[in-house]
Amino acid sequence: MGVISSVGNDVPTFWKNLLDGVCGIDYVDDFQGTDLPVTIAGKVKDFNPEQYGMDKPFIRKQDKFCQYGMAAAFQAMADASLHAEGEEQNIDPFRLGVYVGSGIGGFEVQIRETAKMLEDPSGKWVSPLFIPTMISNIAAGHIAIKHQAKGPCLDIVTACATSSHCIGEAFRAIRHGYADAIIAGGCENATVPLGVAGFANAKALTRAENPKYASLPFNKNRQGFVMGDGAAVLILEELEHAKARGAKIYGEMVGYGNTCDAYHATAPRPDGSTQARAIRQALEEAGFDETRDNLYINAHGTGTHLNDVAETIAYKVALGDFAYKAHISSIKSMTGHMFGAAGAAEAIATILALQDGIIPPTINLDCPDPECDLDYTPNVAVRSEITLGISDSLGFGGHDACVAFRRYQ
User: Fold this and answer.
1) Of 27, 95, 195, 257, which has the fewest Cβ atoms less than 10 A away?
2) Which architecture characterizes domain 2-244 according to CATH?
3) How far is CA 10 from CA 103, 338, 388, in A?
4) How far apart are CA 326 and CA 321, in angstroms?
5) Rounded to 5 degrees, what angle do the CA atoms 102, 163, 37 make?
6) Hey, which residues are catalytic here?
7) Cα 146 from chain centroid (whole Å)
């Protein structure tokens, strides 16, 4: 596993800060002096791409979303000790895939090159690298080049559900025999002025001025979500292949659900029915048993009024009375909303919660919304020997995804 985020640029730091309730949201220096209504975000800090196998010419050319994805994949491949070439080769390159997506792609590149075009409509100053650095699939392409992954390579784009769908579809591809291992996840760098203006004018972002009390999932005081950047990548590998090479195994992926609200471009279906169907699909495939399982749900939990209420309803529709027994939390209270990278970051948190027997908190949950009346693990981490963990993601366009994991035994 590998991660780049506002709360840490490696998995151990990311996980420790989540358990300690550290908030990565802060003022954005780049926004000072603008007239933007929002000047806070969960930006990546202290990021040095050269630490992750990227050279200066590559760094100079690539948008940050691609750099973040490359860094998370570099960490994950090193963690997995997986090699498709050289003396240490332990996987057929045609059996190694990449499913890494981005909700938006090269936003900074788009803005920079658009400004050139507006200044000189002849277009002669637009970079010849504009297209191959802006397109959202380029991170998956460069990850494949770096690690010689010649198997299936897909860039799924489903807004905030992107990386959960990447993980789920990778799971299916491996299970149905199309690959032995897949580098799966997402990357995003959307907290640029244009992105902030767009989401703010859509009334999706909080206007809170205190960055440490801004992302408030399931809190009655919530005003909207907080933007965040970063990347998260997991290596999914067929079990027998992993065992044969003595791989370190964090957990077992056991289920995946995929539905669409078919309701509204940005608002979730309010009765929770379609979201619940994705959750039930993942739970049924995972062999969920109310009498034996201790369930953790890593919620989408954006801190918008519509999402948090609809998501709470979806859990009740999917689980019935058992919803009140489940442990639930939203790490977006600390990371902000990482868009295309969110689902993979939350999948990592889910797997580590299973491995360590501890639930990360939803921080700042000091005034629970009466409509959100489940156990959202307020403020401090809680120890619990959970047996099954799920993470659900809900994206603009009505895209619903849910992934399920068990501790490997």
Assistant:
1) 27
2) 3-Layer(aba) Sandwich (3.40)
3) 22, 16, 24
4) 10
5) 55
6) 160, 300, 337
7) 22
